[in-house]
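PROTEIN DESIGN WORKSHEET
SECTION A - STRUCTURE
LENGTH: 322
TOKENS:
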């Protein structure tokens, strides 16, 4: 069985939302943790609880430049590759951002690993690789995969690169396709946006789309537990797992939860109508639900339902957002 206990662990994007929570988790067992992050989307504050612990090292480097990350891969036992541009809407203005920050970044990480004889990679992909899946909940063997966003396409391309390196260079990989991950330290997303909007105007709330978009939300603490367990328990050279909850939550319900947590009553909801049948934006998958039997079969089980994850996140972000 693989393990992070007593190992040198590299976490790209480790100062970000999910990455910093993963660092919190692996620091419980690892001998040495190197966070590689350019801090464009992350924050040193997310790691401050580990300041003074000489097992944690933060290198401010850009994973799109292979030569800058190469030295930090030396003697690593496993690389958790989370660094990416996570904003689906970015491609509407800059299509190259996801190519560079997702696909090329993954290639650079794999090349750096190859040069330094590092075998194990854990990659954070996304449910958007499935596109508009005809089967719900969607299992890992669903196909053909037809992403409807450049972001989803960039993650699917990254998955393909990892698969090829695992086969060609005798590496081992675990790929996770996430539902919507929420929790403290979140810096974007519907819950974050609703709090910001309601702080500005507590009487009304603009909702992108028709409000009927329904997706699975998983709490970040549950997510990182699944990531570590999946890495430890996977025996295949390449494992692919969905991480999510068995429930889903629609946007109107999220609005109800956020307004309740904020103690607001009588808020008027104003939906924009959206695009392409009520989506919030181009590339927005309107309905997403993942089959999580495979990861649960390894012994993982989320502590929070989709609605509970949304509520817990709203409570946390309300204290964090200025």
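SECTION B - SEQUENCE
RESIDUE ASSIGNMENT:
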């Amino acid at each position: 069985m693989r393990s992070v206990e007593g190992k040198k662990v590299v976490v790209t994007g480790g100062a970000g939302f999910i990455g910093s929570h993963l660092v919190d988790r692996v620091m419980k067992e690892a001998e040495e943790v190197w966070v590689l992050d350019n801090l464009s989307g992350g924050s040193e504050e997310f790691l401050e609880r580990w300041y003074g612990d000489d097992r944690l090292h933060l290198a401010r480097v850009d994973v799109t430049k292979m030569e800058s990350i190469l030295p930090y891969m030396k003697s690593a036992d496993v690389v958790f590759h989370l660094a990416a541009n996570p904003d689906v809407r970015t491609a509407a203005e800059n299509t190259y951002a996801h190519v560079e920050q997702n696909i090329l970044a993954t290639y650079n990480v794999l090349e750096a690993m190859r040069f330094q004889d590092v075998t194990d990679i854990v990659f954070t992909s996304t449910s958007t690789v499935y596109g508009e899946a005809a089967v719900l909940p969607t299992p890992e063997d669903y196909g053909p995969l037809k992403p409807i966003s450049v972001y989803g396409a960039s993650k699917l391309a990254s998955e393909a690169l990892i698969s090829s390196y695992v086969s060609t260079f005798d590496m081992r990989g675990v790929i996770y396709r996430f539902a919507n991950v929420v929790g403290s330290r979140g810096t974007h997303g519907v819950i974050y946006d609703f709090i910001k909007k309601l702080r500005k105007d507590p009487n009304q709330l603009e909702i992108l789309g028709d409000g009927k978009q329904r997706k699975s939300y998983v709490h970040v603490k549950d997510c990182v537990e699944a990531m570590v367990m999946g890495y430890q328990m996977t025996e295949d050279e390449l494992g692919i797992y969905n991480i999510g909850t068995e429930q889903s939550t629609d946007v109107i319900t999220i609005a109800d939860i956020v307004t309740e947590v904020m103690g607001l009553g009588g808020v008027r909801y104003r939906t924009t109508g959206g695009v392409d049948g009520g989506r919030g934006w181009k590339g927005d998958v309107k309905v997403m639900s993942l089959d999580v039997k495979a990861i649960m079969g390894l012994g993982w089980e989320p502590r929070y339902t989709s609605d509970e994850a949304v509520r817990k996140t709203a409570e946390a972000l309300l204290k964090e957002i200025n």
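SECTION C - NOTES
The two ends are 44 Å apart (CA to CA).
DSSP finds nine helices and 14 strands in the chain.
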